[in-house]
Amino acid sequence: MSFVITARGHRAVLSTHPTTLEITTDRSLTTRADCVVAVESSHGLADLPSEVKRILSSNLGRGILILKVGDHAFTVHARGSQALTLSHPRDIVVRRSGFISERTLMVHSDKAAADIPRAMVKLLQNPEEEISIEIHASLQAQS
User: What is the Cα–Cα distance from 39 to 28, expressed in whole angstroms?
Assistant: First the structure.
């Protein structure tokens, strides 16, 4: 199951947070938000299709988030959890840790905002750039 979201770049994108990556529907951004990589997202967590939510709210859920801007693509692999509510209306957060809030899409990710190549971050800082965010969800086969 997959779902595509669009967003925009912002001059204040730093992409330096070592443990999280965030996308928001908000239009404004401060440099304190060093995990935010895209703004003006077309969707928040609450808007995700029910099938994506069903899969990612399972301990067997596995997800892939792919950010695309210009010629660049950045892929993050992570896990779902039965504790996820996937209910926040504005934000989508992927975390390296197992911390869960209403803003969390996936946990135990293999990458965060700080891992995005700096050439790609330069594009994410351009408000004229449209960013594509693909979210793929699947269930891990039980052994």
Answer: 7
Q: Taking residues 8-16, what's their average pLDDT? A: 97
Say which amino acid occupies 64: I
Please give the domain boundaries of the chain with CATH numbers for all domains.
2-139 (2.60.120.630)
**What pLDDT, on a 0 to 100 scale, did the predictor assign at position 143?**
62
- Which residue's entry shows tokens 């950045």? 74
pTM of the model: 0.96
**DSSP string of 16-72, one letter each residue:** --SSEEEEES-S---TT-TTEEEBS-S--GGGS-HHHHHHHTSTTEEEEEEEEETTE
Helix, strand, coil percentages (3-state) for the chain, rounded to 5, are: 15, 35, 50
